[in-house]
Design brief:
Length: 129
């Protein structure tokens, strides 16, 4: 698949996608199904569910961690922003040296990008963004 958009250090326009529609299921079911699928595919293609990528061993067989964006931010910053208003989140962004932007959702995304993304090594589901 090729998206017609620019490339920068965080976006590569070429990617592989799998699209799936299932009636009467929720995203928890989808996480379960995706976890089973990835584990099976990695086992079949690589001969093991644990593979080495760079200096890391990636475990596709384990139950994957599941965190909301708020939980992930709290895990890696120690700060719970889930009940904060925009001004309070802006102060946290300033304190954590995150990108300050125009509105609450982008501030939360900025926190996630600055403090969580660098820790994304093992398969993990982040939801409720």
């Amino acid at each position: 698949m090729f998206r017609n958009e620019g490339m920068d250090r965080t976006h590569n326009p070429e990617f592989t996608a799998l699209e799936l529609y299932v009636a009467y299921k929720d995203y928890f079911w989808m996480m379960d199904m995706t976890e089973k699928m990835l584990s099976t595919v990695v086992q079949e293609v690589c001969g093991a569910a644990v593979i080495e990528v760079g200096n890391h061993q990636i475990d596709f067989a384990s139950t994957y961690t599941r965190l909301t964006m708020y939980e992930a931010i709290e895990k890696y910053t120690g700060i719970d922003i889930s009940e904060m208003d925009e001004q309070q989140i802006r102060q946290v962004c300033h304190q954590l040296q995150c990108i300050l932007t125009q509105w609450r959702g982008k501030l939360i995304d900025g926190n996630f990008g600055a403090k969580v993304e660098q820790n994304l090594i093992q398969p993990t589901f982040y939801y409720q963004h």
